[in-house]
Amino acid sequence: MNEILFYSLAALTLGCGLLVVANPFSRNPVTSAMFLVMTILSLAGLFVLLGAFFLAAVQVIVYAGAVIVLFLFVIMLMGSHELPRRAFHWLLAAAACLVTGALAALLLRLLSALKTQPPAVGAPVEGGTALLGRLLFTDYLLPFEVVSVVLLVAMVGVIVLSRKEAA
Amino acid sequence: MLMRRSVLLIYMSLELMLNAANLAWVAFSHFNRNLDGQVMVFFIVTVAAAEVAVGLALMVALFRQRQSTQAEDFATLKL
Description:
The structure holds two protein chains of two kinds. Chain A is mainly alpha-helical. Helices cover about 75% and strands about 0% of the residues of chain A. In chain A, helix 1 runs antiparallel to helix 2 and helix 2 packs antiparallel against helix 3. Chain A is globular. The N and C termini of chain A lie far apart (about 60 Å). Chain B has a single domain, classed as Orthogonal Bundle (Helix Hairpins), CATH 1.10.287.3510. The longest helix of chain B is centred in the middle third of the chain and has 31 residues. Chain B is elongated and about 50 Å long. The chains are: A mainly alpha, B mainly alpha. Chains A and B meet through helix 1, helix 2, helix 3, helix 5 and helix 6 of A and helix 1 and helix 2 of B.
């Protein structure tokens, strides 16, 4: 059951992720944003399979709820015209294949060189969400506060950037 | 060499890459039986949200000046 779910969610993630960057049917940025939503939702499903329930909720709320809405806002603001079709570049495609192949070969070699077996799948960490919260407010208290400052700075920066300039 | 590319699509691809890294963190955290990876994903999501807000504000400011979303039109600094 879990394996069927995993493989279908993984296929959904990969397929929708591919359609975000290279959609042969539509060049509209809104379509890309919608496929990004699908990718994020299936990633949230994968998180649930890995026992990260809190992160799955965060993924849905923050990414599908806030980031995508922001994207759609900006797309609507700029007018969602069709993007021009690009010519296929053999050189670029060959370079991309080379880099991806090298990375995949490296990863495969690393995996085959790995001696230790991963522990048995299943049984997520006990009390995942509560433990995560405790960890966040003890071991990771300083990064947590710094990240809140980062959010504040981002908010102020966005207000300054998007203000209508007099000049 | 640079072809017409939408800045918005570049941003969406950036989000995809961050999500791939998040998935790796969560998977390693699951198989190693500790929660440090999940904490890291929490921070990545927060920083990504802040980064998207700033980036989209920059994009809107650029659009006001150039009336375009194509990366090619913002290449004035290029030699």
